[in-house]
Structures are given as C-alpha cells and as structure tokens.
C-alpha cells in the first residue's frame, strides 16, 4: 500500500515540529552568510547575482523569524533552556548580526526607511542580549560549562560591529539626530574592539595551552577571523563617512591604525584555521558532514572579501581590491557547497521521519 497525501502531511508536520523545537539559536548565521556575500557582490558590481542572493536572504530571514516566533510560543522550555545555557546563549547574537547584515543589504537598495527600522530593531535586541548573555555567563557558568572554543562567543562582536556598519550607512536618515548616531556608532566600534580583545585572549589561551580534540575544532572557530574582518569593515565605513564632528574627527588616526591592524589580524588567522581543518579532517579522518555551524565559516569568508574591498577604498590601496575579487568567489563557492549540504541533510532528515 502506497503512502497517501495524509501520510506525507503528518510526516511533514512531525518533522517540522521537531525542527522548530531543536532549532539552533545560531541558525541566523545562514542569513549572515548569504547576506554578506550578496552585499560583497553588490559592491563588486555583480548586481544580478547579488540580487538573487538578496532574495534568498529575505526568504531565509522571514522563514527563520517565523520559526523562532513559533518556537517561543510552542516550545518555550526549549528556547529558555538555550537562553540560560552559557555555552549557547551567545549564539542568539546571530539574530542581531543577521538583522544588521540584511538591513545593510536593504540600505544598498536605497530603502532607507526600512533599513532604519532594521537598525533600531537590531540595536534594541543587542541591548537586551548583551547584558542578558553576560548575566548568564556570570551566574550560570560552571568550571565545566561554557567553552569559548565551542560557544561562538565572538558572534557578540560580530553583532556589535554590524550595528556600526548599518548605523553609519543610514545615519543621514535620522536628520537632527545624525550627530548622535555617529557618536553612538563610534562608541559601538570601540566597544566591539574591547570585547574582541577580551574574547580572543581567552580563545588563544584555550587553543594554545590546553589539549584540543578534533570535536573542539568546529566551523564556528572561523568567527575569530570573521570578527576581526567585520571590525575592519566597520572601521573602514567610519573612515569613508566623515561625521564632521571635531571630536570624532580627532579620533581618525586611531581608527586608521586599528582598522589596518584588525585586517592584518584577520588575514593571519586564515592559514591557521585551514591548518586546523586539515588536522581534523585529513589527519584525524573526521568525516566532513553538514552542520548548521558551517554557515559560521561561510560568513567570515564573505566578510573578509567585503572588508578588504572597503579597506582598499579607505586606505586608497588598490591591490586589496584584487584580493577582494578572489575572495568573493571563494566565499560564493563555499556558500553553494554549504547550501547543497543543507538541502541534502534536510531531505535525509525528512525521509527518516517519514519512514
């Protein structure tokens, strides 16, 4: 007897309910990765390809937003368990970063009012999460709780710097409040650097002075490069958009130097991260399979491309443009492979449920 439409409907409902209940809090990394590559292609003048990825970003953002809302309604305990887990709470910053990246894509298409609304929403979410997450880390962490290597803590920095990029781009839309917005985004850029310094010191100490197992080296590690790259991008935007405020203008030399150092630091990490991957998958022979964390590797590749391009304009150093041209296609290839993995893994999961 064949499978009826009713059977497929029940299977789909059961599968979807399971996916919503176990939804990874860092799932918005899909939006981050797709959106940043779309934005990079936009600046590279590949407008049609950028538009196609922007459409995918729009669908993914709305879909994941609906799933998150449904999870909050139907699976409150599962959502709360993730929120009070020191090892997972920082992954929720992917929602803030995804909103910032998507909003930047909207701003590139001259829909300033919507981009402005996205920035305000992202800023409010960031304010809530930045203190809630550190409260969880302070009061709920244990000696064997959150591990900075696995926790994706650096996504908090990515979210912070995404507010700088979008806020700088849409600041003229605020009218008389534009100077206040410029001061705020400068503050956020500096705060992002400070948090990065704290987190990366803990990260390096954990990686270089304690035993590392293959399962510790997840794709989320690439965020250590991505966070430096987005700090570069944000710094370049501050340089390219003159606020005209004397106090902020006086900080320009510091921003110039720190932005260049951030780009150099991001560049330094790329060969080491590749070495980690070779050790895990070639030396230790751990199979390379799809996991939502792979989007946390795709995003830094796209961000590094865009950061190199924006820095080339801010520093008036054209050789960086060639590097950006190459990296954007590498990021797009990584996106295509990961998207194929997502499709295959979703179909396999559904078929197992249907059986």
- Summarize model confidence as the mean pLDDT: 90
Total domains: 1
- What is the share of helical residues? over 70%
Number of helical runs? 14
Level-1 CATH class name: Mainly Alpha
Q: Architecture, CATH level 2?
A: Alpha/alpha barrel
What Rg is obtained from the alpha carbons, in whole angstroms? 20 Å
Give the number of DSSP strands.
0
According to CATH, the homologous superfamily is Voltage-dependent anion channel
CATH topology: Glycosyltransferase
Unreliable residue stretches = none
Strand content: under 5%
How far apart the termini lie comes to 14 Å
Order of helices and strands: HHHHHHHHHHHHHH
Supply the helix-strand structural class.
mainly alpha
Shape call: globular
Note the main sheet: none
């Amino acid at each position: 007897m064949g499978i009826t439409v009713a059977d497929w409907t029940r299977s789909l409902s059961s599968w979807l309910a399971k996916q919503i209940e176990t939804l990874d809090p860092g799932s918005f990394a899909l939006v981050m990765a797709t959106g940043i590559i779309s934005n990079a292609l936009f600046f590279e003048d590949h407008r049609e390809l950028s538009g196609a990825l922007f459409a995918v970003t729009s669908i993914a953002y709305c879909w994941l937003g609906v799933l998150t809302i449904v999870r909050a309604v139907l699976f409150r305990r599962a959502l709360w368990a993730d929120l009070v887990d020191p090892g997972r709470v920082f992954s929720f910053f992917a929602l803030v970063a995804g909103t910032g990246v998507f909003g930047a894509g909207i701003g590139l298409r001259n829909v300033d009012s919507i981009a402005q609304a996205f920035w305000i929403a992202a800023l409010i979410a960031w304010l809530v999460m930045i203190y809630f997450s550190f409260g969880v880390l302070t009061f709920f962490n244990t000696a064997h709780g959150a591990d900075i290597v696995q926790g994706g803590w650096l996504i908090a920095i990515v979210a912070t710097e995404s507010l700088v990029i979008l806020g700088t781009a849409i600041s003229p839309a605020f009218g008389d409040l534009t100077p206040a917005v410029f001061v705020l985004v400068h503050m956020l850029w500096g705060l992002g650097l400070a948090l990065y310094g704290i987190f990366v010191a803990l990260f390096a100490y954990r990686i270089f002075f304690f035993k590392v197992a293959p399962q510790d080296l997840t794709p989320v590690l690439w965020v250590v490069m991505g966070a430096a790259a987005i700090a570069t991008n944000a710094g370049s935007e501050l340089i390219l958009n003159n606020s005209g405020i004397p106090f902020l203008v006086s900080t320009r030399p510091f921003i110039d130097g720190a932005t260049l150092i951030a780009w150099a630091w991001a560049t330094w990490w790329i060969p080491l991260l590749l070495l980690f991957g070779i050790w895990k998958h070639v030396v230790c022979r751990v199979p390379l399979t799809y996991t939502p964390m792979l989007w946390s590797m795709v995003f830094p590749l796209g961000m590094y491309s865009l950061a190199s391009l924006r820095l080339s304009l801010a520093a008036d150093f054209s050789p960086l443009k060639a590097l950006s041209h190459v990296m954007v296609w590498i990021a797009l290839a990584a996106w295509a492979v990961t998207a194929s993995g997502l499709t295959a893994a979703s179909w396999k999961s559904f078929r197992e449920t249907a059986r």
